[in-house]
Design a protein that fits this description.
The protein is an alpha/beta fold and 425 residues long. It is built from 13 helices and 20 strands. Bound molecules: inosinic acid (IMP). Inosinic acid binds next to helix 4.
Length: 425
């Protein structure tokens, strides 16, 4: 079966972009299925670095078609900016990128509401990226969203947009005490997107299902991570979509039976950006070291990421949830030089030990990590060309993780560059 899904196994920022970039040359199509410009998928090659927010990470491989599926929420301005930046680097986008006519749009009022609501939440803020993601999905499910297809009907868009801004202005001013947005300025700006976006608009579900019927291969690229799933993550400290394998089906309009490979991307340690529970968080020198060595600052917002030890309780949970068939472990090089490596293998909650990840926040807040300690390793891993070249302790660490999760590790990241990647033969 030709669909592979790439999924962040933790709280996002696992290095999905790099793995998608590695797999893309062997795929006919790379498709994003959820989230929006809250994502930041970083790709490095030679001296170049590019952070993709909306466009799939296959765009730098010219033989690969790219799809933004119906499950994604699209900020048209951010999208057109990204297209221009990629074309300026010499990579053609027109003719290769297909955008679902059914994907919902992020409008300026979604961003205003995102920011206003975070301010209103005060100490309880989620720590969103401020990209308007949650409010856009709210409108989608309230059945009052504006979709890509609406951009192609100027008169219809004027009406829908005017009504939506007037409604949101009442909410912004009456509830949050925010300034009202300028209706005419927004409408005039957004009706201009019709011609720019028209060449990309496609019934992407039909396109993908036709491709499947022709035996083509598809890589579904998840954004964020499974622990940020709105149903299965650490609610309410989650994003508003399904970054899990089920989300690939609804977010692209393809059947689950078409999927045969589900690759969990696991950072060799844990990070989280934004608020919410994080049982293995390190608020000490080791945490600082991981942040500095791993350049753990948000690719979208620049915020410092919280860092901690690898958490196998959480990973076992996301492995089961997604049905990982293999794992890609990224950023192993960042752990080089640590004298010992701790791995959380259980939680202690109210004096009892459990290997089950609690999905209600009040219980999770009381979870204390139980660690096993493994020997550290040192040296420059980026020189390794084969898994056998890695230090013994690094291989033991990987083996420990694979054994405990009962999933094989097929890809290992040993540095930020494309070539600093080991693939199991
Ligand atoms: P939102 O998706 O902007 O609504 O943010 C909700 C939560 O998800 C916040 O904790 C964000 O920091 C987190 N989040 C959203 N996108 C990403 C991502 O791409 N990487 C890591 N965390 C993310």
């Amino acid at each position: 079966m030709p669909v592979s899904v790439v999924i962040g196994a933790q709280w996002g920022d696992e290095g999905k972009g790099k793995v998608v970039d590695l797999l893309a040359p062997s795929m006919d199509i790379v498709a994003r299925y959820q989230g929006g410009a809250n994502a930041g998928h970083t790709i490095k090659w030679g001296d170049e670095t590019f952070v993709l927010h909306l466009i799939p990470s296959g765009i730098f491989h010219e033989g690969t078609a790219c799809v933004i599926g119906n499950g994604v929420v699209i900020d048209p301005k951010a999208l057109m900016d990204e297209i221009r930046q990629i074309e300026a680097l010499g990579y053609p986008v027109a003719g290769r990128l297909k955008i679902s006519h059914n994907a919902h749009l992020i409008m300026p009022y979604h961003k205003a509401l995102d920011e206003a609501k975070e301010r209103w939440r005060d100490a309880e803020a989620i720590g969103t990226t401020g990209r308007g993601i949650g409010p856009a999905y709210v409108d989608k499910f309230a059945r009052s969203g504006i979709r890509v297809v609406d951009l192609l009907d100027r008169d219809g868009l004027r009406k829908k947009l005017t009504a939506a801004i007037e409604e949101k202005n009442d909410i912004l001013s009456a509830i949050y005490g925010s300034e009202r947005l300028d209706v005419d300025a927004i409408v005039d700006e957004y009706v201009e997107f019709d011609q720019q976006i028209d060449p990309y608009v496609t019934d992407t579900s039909a396109f993908l299902n036709d491709a499947l019927a022709e035996g083509k291969s598809i890589l579904a690229e998840g954004a964020q991570g499974a622990l940020l799933d709105v149903d299965h993550g650490t609610y309410p400290y989650v994003t508003s979509s399904h970054p899990t394998s089920g989300g690939a089906c609804t977010g692209l309009g393809i059947p689950p039976t078409a999927i045969d490979r589900i690759i969990g991307i696991v950072k060799a340690y844990s990070t989280r950006v934004g608020n919410g529970p994080f049982p293995t968080e390190l608020e000490d020198e080791t945490g600082e070291r991981l942040r500095a060595e791993g350049h753990e600052f948000g690719a979208t917002t620049g915020r410092p990421r919280r860092c901690g030890w690898l958490d196998l309780v959480a990973l076992n949970y996301t492995s089961r949830l997604n049905g990982f068939t293999e794992l890609a472990v990224t950023k192993l090089d960042v752990m080089s030089g640590l004298p010992e490596l701790k791995v959380c293998t259980a939680y202690e909650i109210d004096g009892k030990t459990t290997e089950r990840f609690p999905t209600d926040l009040r219980t999770l807040d009381r979870a204390r990590p139980v660690y096993e300690t493994l020997p550290g390793f040192s040296g420059d891993l980026s020189e390794a060309r084969d898994i056998a070249d890695l230090p013994d302790a690094a291989r033991d660490y990987l083996q420990f993780v694979s054994d405990r999760l009962k999933v094989p590790i097929t890809v290992i990241g040993t540095g930020p560059k494309r070539e600093e990647t080991l693939v199991a033969s």
